[in-house]
Amino acid sequence: MFAVFKTGGKQYRVAAEDVLKVAKLKGERGEIVEFGEVLVVGGDSVTLGAPTVAGATVAAEVLDQARGPKIIAFKKRRRKNSRRKRGFREEFTLIRITEILTDGKKANKEVQPRPKRAPAPAAEADAEAGETAAAASEGTTAKKAPAKKASAKKAPKTKAKAPAARAKPKGKPKK
Asked: Which tens digit of pLDDT belongs to each residue from 18-34?
């Protein structure tokens, strides 16, 4: 299930457990905040709002309140000895979407413990593939190529100039 909600003048498409940066919100670390301005709710069927979906909210946990990188606004007017340099750091809130609610349901105000992820089955498949490759290579009698020395120096490369292609007159043409 996904939702599109609006906050801070921007729209975000999110699903459960997504982490994103939004404009600064009120709320301390660990609090649950709700976004009531939901524009679209999707899943098995998509519900479009006109302009918002009635009874739909997006709940999120505040992970951090921070400031972004410094942005420098430098203005210069040439030949006027006029310049101005201003810098600022935009404040943002890092949030994790906890749930997407419809039909007027209320968000759970307590932070739920995140489920532990099981180890990926790809890691087990890689281990098995490595074992079968090792067994296959033991059965072959192919000779390996000798390894190159790491300290061997490479010959310097020289660039050849094309005489006609690069010849351009320098300066202004004579009249």
From this structure: 999 999 999 999 999 99
Q: Give CA–CA dist 111/132, Å, rounded.
A: 45
Helix (H) or strand (E) holding 20: strand 19-23
Question: Which residue has tokens 């009874």?
Answer: 55
98: amino acid identity, one letter? T
Q: Which long-range contacts (CB under 8 A, 24 or more apart) does 84-87 make?
A: none
| Cα–Cα distance measured from residue 106 to residue 28, given in angstroms and rounded to the nearest whole number | 20
Question: How many residues belong to the chain?
Answer: 175
In whole angstroms, give the CA distance from residue 7 to residue 13.
11
Rounded to whole angstroms, how far apart are CA atoms 120 and 118? 6
CB 109 within 8 A of CB 61: no
